[in-house]
Design goal:
Strand order of the largest sheet: 11-10-9-8-12-6-13-16-15
Radius of gyration: 21 Å
Structural class: alpha/beta
Helix content: 10-25%
Number of domains: 2
Bound molecules: NADP nicotinamide-adenine-dinucleotide phosphate
Order of helices and strands: HEEEEEHEEHEHEEEHEHEEEE
Shape: globular
Strand content: 25-35%
CATH class of the largest domain: Alpha Beta
Amino acid sequence: MPCELHDEAWLALLAAGRLLADGPRDLAFCERDGEWHCEPVRADRTAVAAEQVLFVAADTGTDEESTFDAGAATRVTVYRPRERVPELTDLTTAGVDARMQSFARVYLPIVHGAARARTTDRVFVAAHVTQTLDGRIACTNGQSQWIGNEADLQHAHRMRALLDGVAVGANTVLQDDPKLTVRHVEGPDPKRLVISGTGRALAGEEHRQVFDAPGSIVLVRDDVTATAPTSHVELVPVERNCRDDLSPAAILAAIKAQGVHSIYLEGGARTVSSFLATGAIDLLQVHVASMVLGSGLSSFELPTVEHVRDGRPFVMDHASLQGHLLLTCWPQPRD
Ligand SMILES: NC(=O)c1ccc[n+]([C@@H]2O[C@H](COP(=O)([O-])OP(=O)(O)OC[C@H]3O[C@@H](n4cnc5c(N)ncnc54)[C@H](OP(=O)(O)O)[C@@H]3O)[C@@H](O)[C@H]2O)c1
């Protein structure tokens, strides 16, 4: 059974994101007195005195492999980013504990993806769905709070804190009225991005919590005339395509122009599916809750396929969230 994630390493992970702001480098996560810290690797590449050490090799995208030395430390593991599932190798008889290994496998691909996007001037997209065992993200009437559990909520807030922006579709704003801020963990708030081609998310008199604080952006079609509900909200026009829709590529270009190089795409189904259909997702997280609804909204809305070979392939990794499952899925090209 996979392990629960490691709360004690959260602040060290935030520090890792900051250390990678100027480009790829090797890092060391060290546990002292039960707390994890993140620091650059020493010049002699040897583990420091600590209860456990996780070396994290730089994400350079080349075949060149950094080397690390366990020195006198007793529990040392090396994490190497790979194009898909990362690789962890113990340098000592027992490596770092299983919770830290799970934590690294879930969050270091996010930290590296966000850092790489900044240096290559693109937008890293991590999408997320919380679904039942039968693949539903909401009841037929749209009610979805909460299919996930406490650990999923904390996970979502970690993801928001690690990435520049969090994005949702108009229906999610109208149905769920999310705040999209970081409250369940320590960390910075992301820019809050609402995708609403028609501007529907701005219509009506109803108060929407997503527009409460500075840092909200609504992406609308460039032919739509809408008014921002408060001075906190910026309307960003996005060039529409021939179907009068917004292509994810155009949405990402508009987001990048706002200085956002990584987003957490939190739903709903139509939004995540439009990105998935055009290959605009780098990594998809699927939280599988221990529940069956038997009816309701499907996790994805994609064109009909006639044969299973036309399905979309992924490479997957998994972790446990308080008895639920968190899948990290990397989209693969079809053969
Ligand atoms: N379990 C979960 O993980 C989870 C997460 C989030 C939401 N939900 C649930 O999911 C439901 C909402 O999902 P949904 O699929 O109905 O809607 P949605 O994805 O939240 O919103 C769809 C709307 O977003 C805009 N949009 C998204 N992508 C677009 C694109 N490429 N081009 C143009 N506009 C785009 C459009 O707004 P316009 O119509 O204004 O053009 C579209 O109608 C709710 O019931 C919510 O509770 C569940």
